């Protein structure tokens, strides 16, 4: 029996990319997945794929900038399956641009999604984990927080904030709870879709050249989740071998 089998795992940003790949892999290994994302049609389709393959899935439209939506995601897990073992905070946006462009609304959106979205998840899941006496936070961060480069200042700042938050949470969590940070490098996703056209072209070219598939990151999440009680995998970096 796998250390994943029977666990209830809620995943934000599950409609595509890393979130989708994580849901498919964990469900394949016996987890019951609870899917959250803004695009309901993607969630419905993904849940159908999980169930067709013999797994169990539930879904609810989730905008992580709304605390009530995170509350609904956690509530769905408990109502449907009776518990919540893992919260994978994966939803994120990377609206990168030069600071001189003063794209303040983009900055605010990255703060709202990448940082406040994780905080809202903690606010909803932590009391549940305390009540249960067990639980696992898996926060998807980025190698952008390890090596800051031009154009990514605000994006990297939000990811570094989550890294700091996660370490503080780990120290406060106590022996019953676990906290894992997974930092992907270039991954083949729709990450660049909303970027400025010139910046997007640079990112897409890099992705086409070296990016790894989302399944590579999903396997890292699975590794952390499958560990026995009392084993906390703190930090995992997953990037292409060709990435600087």
From TrEMBL:
Query: Which ranges form a coiled coil?
Result: none
Which Pfam families does the entry mention?
Answer: adh_short (PF00106)
Q: Record's family?
A: Belongs to the short-chain dehydrogenases/reductases (SDR) family.
Protein name as annotated: SDR family oxidoreductase
Under the heading PROSITE patterns, the entry gives: ADH_SHORT
Q: Which Gene3D superfamilies match?
A: NAD(P)-binding Rossmann-like Domain
Q: Does the keyword Oxidoreductase apply?
A: yes
Keyword set includes Repeat: no
What keywords would UniProt list here? Oxidoreductase
């Amino acid at each position: 029996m796998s250390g994943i089998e029977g666990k209830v795992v809620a995943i934000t940003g599950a409609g595509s990319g890393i979130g989708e790949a994580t849901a498919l892999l964990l469900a394949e290994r016996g987890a019951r997945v609870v899917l959250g994302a803004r695009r309901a049609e993607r969630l419905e389709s993904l849940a159908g794929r999980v169930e067709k393959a013999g797994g169990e899935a539930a879904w609810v439209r989730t905008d992580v900038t709304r605390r009530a939506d995170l509350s609904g995601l956690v509530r769905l897990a408990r109502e449907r399956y009776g518990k919540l073992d893992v919260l994978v905070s994966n939803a994120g946006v990377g609206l990168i641009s030069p600071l001189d462009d003063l794209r303040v609304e983009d900055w605010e959106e990255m703060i709202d999604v990448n940082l406040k979205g994780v905080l809202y998840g903690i606010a909803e899941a932590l009391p549940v984990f305390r009540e249960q006496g067990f639980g696992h936070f898996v926060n998807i961060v980025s190698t952008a927080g390890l090596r800051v480069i031009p154009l990514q200042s605000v994006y990297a700042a939000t990811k570094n904030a989550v890294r700091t938050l996660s370490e503080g949470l780990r120290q406060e969590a106590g022996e019953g709870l676990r906290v894992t940070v997974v930092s992907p490098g270039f991954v083949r996703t729709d990450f660049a879709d909303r970027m400025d056209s010139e910046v997007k072209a640079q990112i897409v070219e890099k992705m086409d050249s070296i990016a790894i598939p989302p399944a590579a990151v999903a396997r890292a999440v699975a590794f952390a989740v499958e560990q026995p009680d009392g084993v906390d995998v703190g930090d995992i970096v997953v990037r292409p071998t060709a990435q600087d």
